[in-house]
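Re: that chain you flagged

S.,

Sorry for the slow reply, it's been a week of failed gels. I finally had a moment to sit down with the sequence you sent. For the record, here it is as I used it:
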Amino acid sequence: MVVNRELLIDGKDVPALSGRTAEDLNPFTGEVYATVAAAGPRDVTRAVDAADAAFARWAALAPFDRRAIFLKAADLLDDRRERAAGLMAGEAGATRPWAYFNVALAANILRESAAAITAPRGEVLSAQQEGTLGLAIREPLGVVAAFAPWNAPLILGVRAVAAPLAAGNTVVVKASEDAPIACGLFVADVLREAGLPDGVLNVVTNAREDAAETAEVLISDSRVRAVNFTGSTDVGRIVAARAAAHLKPAVLELGGKNAVIVLADADLDHAVDAAAFSVFLNSGQICMSGDRVLVHDSLAAEFTRRFTAKAATLRAGDPGDPHTVVGPLVSASAAERVAALVEDAVARGATVLTGGGRPEGAVHPATVLTGVPKDAELHYAEAFGPVCVLDTFADDDTAVALANDTENGLTCGIITENATHGLAVARRVRTGIVHINDQSVADEPHAPFGGVKASGYGRFGGRWGIEAFSSTRWVTIATQRAHYPF
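Prediction finished late last night. Pasting the structure tokens below so you have them in one place:
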């Protein structure tokens, strides 16, 4: 049965003013999973109207009352694990373990945001003026525009709104066209049932052809005071430019070309398992996925044999099959794009060790390549699919140079049994995140999450998320009257 959803504006489910709808396809079957309202510019303005009208009341709500809403929402999300898993499979082709992980982490993001609401914010300042008390106070910005992606829809949908709401802002979400319910409306449903007041969180969905116009109208509205976007670097550049044109701060978490570095002192079994998890989790559709596995010369032959053998056993196909590890990509066109990257690399001299070939619909098998030259598109392009490139290095200097040979800088995994050695390498790798004796994919709600270079700027998570969506205001209290020269 096809699911039908409308826009969420001011606490009400409403159709687009035009009456238009858009189809939301199941990537594995190609069938229509849902229809959603296709917002136009006037709908976006209605959503901002509601958020702006609700701001003063929400910002003034007692912190413990706000915290209670977040904690209840976290429990509700845990309770709806099976519903969420079915939704993620239908919209994004997610396997059940990936969906369960999304639920667990998204619920904990809400709990961490609840804790941040009542955490101390601000400082007492020393004052030059005698008899004056100085304060630095964190205050909400106003309406925040949030762009939520499809690939980890519950995690990133919750993350897009949790810190802004916790800081006292109201939010308008532009949901991804590929998972508009999971990353937008479902998240809003949970918060609404938990007691979030009307208008505090609004969700607009749109037809794919209207995405640019919807984003432009939302960002350019003068009442929107900040933007957050998680997605590709190419689209992130556009969002950043539009926000900058209107002098609005933005938090951007963009693409990655992440490396897993296997040092000579690594445990080989751990390295193989860790690298496979990094590369193939959610079919490689994670900004933190390990596109490149860099292995010390002394381990290269045995690592390559074991890693390739493991990749060859990973079942690809139906996300509903409990044995499936590599589910479908978000669309057949996404699978074609990945296949084209592999074909181009092979045409330029690369070798496929396992996988490759033409995709079946949206399903592309786990694929490992070696010998990918610099003129192949895959050498620098983010694969965003179940594909990785193996390369080798003779020393730390070469490993660092290879890892840094990208415009991106999101995350890195360094596999080693020697933490001191790992830390020495980590300090030279230019990424916003690095994990020593672990792979590249990790996320914790209290940690600062974000990248450098073309992977974006700003940080989600913990107090850093609150700081990103609030401003510091200087306030003084004169405890005695000043003497003025005139």
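What I noticed first: The CA atoms of residues 409 and 431 lie 4 Å apart.

Talk soon,
D.
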